[in-house]
Amino acid sequence: MHCSTSRSLLAAAVLAAAQAVAAQAPSAAAAATPVVATRTANIAPANATPQAPMPFPAVASLKPIPSSVMAAYTNMPTLWPDADESKGPIALDSLLAAPLVTAGLAKVTAMVDPTLLALKPSIRNGYQSETLYQEDPVANCFWPTNQCHTPSLTTYKYLQPDVVACIDQSTLGLNYDDGPSGPTGQPSQGNETTLALGQKLQSMNLTATFFVTGGSSFYNPDALQALYAEGHELAVHTWTHAPMTSLTNQQIVAEILYTEAFIYALVGQRPRYFRPPYGDVDNRVRAIIGALGYESVMWQEAKDLGDQASATPPPVASMVALFDSWMTPQAGYIDLEHSLAAPVNQFAAAILDDVAARKAAGKFVPTIVPVGTCQKKSSYVPLGFALGDVAGVAANSTTPSSSSAAAGATMGSSSVAAGATPKSTAGPATPGASAANSGAVPPAGPAFLAGSVAAAAAAAAAAVLAF
Q: Could you tell me the Gene Ontology terms of the biological process aspect for this record (predicted)?
């Protein structure tokens, strides 16, 4: 699964695919000329094993979430999408029609301009094929063709520029995509663990952002809890690692919200940040992301480590040398690294060794922090939050002992944010067991955060996970 610079298909295959798509278009005026994206996409082949809904993983070592915190999450699923990412994006009608998705889609439909939602999804050509974009890539700020990060349609409230840089000089927003990996992983991905990477960072007094997929998290829920306990920032990277522009609006909502709900079920927090797999994003996807309350985080193209750029892993020394070349005073930046299969975890560990060696030798090292810290924003936001509701929740804090209090009511629904006591159930919380799942769309706008901030912070702090 490759998030960084991809291997292109053979030119003849791409041309044939583009011609086939063009032949299906009703007319030149009715459909834009397909644009071949520069990133590959893992798409389930036609003969893939059918998807199946999955119950919450039964892992004895998981630490339960307080029932009052679980009750605050409206429409917590009882069944989850298939965790095997090779089967393609979420496609089961029963999961797409679940209250979690229907409420989220209703919120998006109410908030996003219909002209953006009407943009056609891109077309995929089969397993690990190129994505053929069906709209004007320039007008719709389609990143894979022109590295566009700033939409020109600035009048839309929820259409926000991608986050690509840190605010302060000589600051690195360190982050890793695709994990967590662990003893049980995606098929063919090996069993090198993200846990070792998190612990290595902790030993160096560093924290990072982990853009996690729902599928990888489902296989390794204890690893996700461990990353959070170590103070790392958790962010959403979809459930199946599907290219976002190729999905329907309903599927985009499902990919984000099932991952959000799974993270919440494990750590009681709702992330602020989202990264589109392969950097596959346009204005339609950005608007949906914003309406769901997420900021889209990309990276600076010159700071792409390329650790998953080919089927043959590059030498570790070359990865270290590339990262080391970034160690100069410069404007703040966000890089792109991964933590899933064995080689990329080895790259990440070797790079951290290089950072430690530079520090020991008195050489320059930038300030290394998670993305939220480098943006001077909280890692987590209240449930129901949408971009434009507030400029920022609070100063960032990713440590389990303080993140909830620092961010206000980061774990509650509207009732918790307003300082009310959420409903609770007796005994350990089970995802989906809350009787409060009414299917209502979470309220948006400043009124959502009304009430006593002090009471909200106290309520959230009282409910925080005691890891």
A: carbohydrate metabolic process; fungal-type cell wall biogenesis
pLDDT tens, residue by residue, 380-411: 999 988 776 543 333 323 333 333 323 322 22
Domain ranges of the chain: 67-463
- Rg of the chain taking only CA atoms, in angstroms: 21
List, for residues 285-310, the tens digit of each pLDDT value.
999 999 999 999 999 999 998 887 66
Q: Are 133 and 145 in contact (CB under 8 A)?
A: yes
Contacts of residue 332, Cβ cutoff 8 Å, sequence gap at least 6? 165, 166, 167, 168, 169, 170, 171, 172, 173, 374
For residue 110, what is the DSSP state? H
Element (H, E) at 233: strand 233-236
φ and ψ at residue 47, rounded to 5 degrees: -95, 20
Give the model's pLDDT for residue 238. 97
For the question of whether the overall pTM of this predicted structure is more than 0.90, the answer is no
Please answer whether residues 335 and 369 qualify as being in contact, where contact means their C-beta atoms are separated by less than 8 angstroms.
Answer: no
Q: What DSSP designation does 77 have?
A: -
Q: Where are the beta strands (DSSP E) in 237-360?
A: 273-274, 295-296, 333-334
- pLDDT for position 389: 54
What is the rounded CA–CA span in Å between residue 264 and residue 266? 5
Q: Helix 99-111 to helix 249-267 angle, to the nearest 10 degrees?
A: 120
Q: Which of 383, 386, 385 is nearest to 158 (CA)?
A: 386
Residue type, 178: D
Q: Which residues of 217-226 are buried (b: 16+ CB within 10 A; e: fewer)?
A: bbbbbbbbbb
CA separation for the pair 352, 203 (Å, rounded): 11
Q: Indicate the burial class of 27 (C-beta count within 10 angstroms; 0-12, 13-18, 19 or more).
A: exposed
Calculate ∠ Cα 257-261-262, nearest 5°. Answer: 120
Listed residue (59, 109, 52) closest to 81, CA to CA = 52
The domain made up of 67-463 has a fold known as TIM Barrel (3.20.20)
